[in-house]
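Fold this sequence, please.
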Amino acid sequence: MDTTLPPPSSRSSTHALRPAPRAAAVPEPLPASQLLVLAASGHSQALDCPAGGELRILQGRVWISREGHAEDLFLDSGEVLRLQEAARLHLSAEQAAPAWVRLAPE
């Protein structure tokens, strides 16, 4: 069986290449959640959070300081901080074990 194609000039016009159909517009993907592991080193980690974002403590106790706010927060495993406005947070694990934190966009 011959599997070679005849030269282009001898091909029928019914086999001409056609442009591919246009793909439907793909929406921009939503920002993904961020998972942070805060070491039990006593050092803080800065985190820029979007308005409407949700910071969930998955494990451990976390110290949270918000730039421009006088009060600090302490959240334990299972607690959530919902941000009304965009903020820069400084986070630190408060115990001898690391803390796990998830930041989810609105």
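The chain is about 0% helix and 40% strand. Residues 1-8, 11-15 have pLDDT under 50 and may be disordered.
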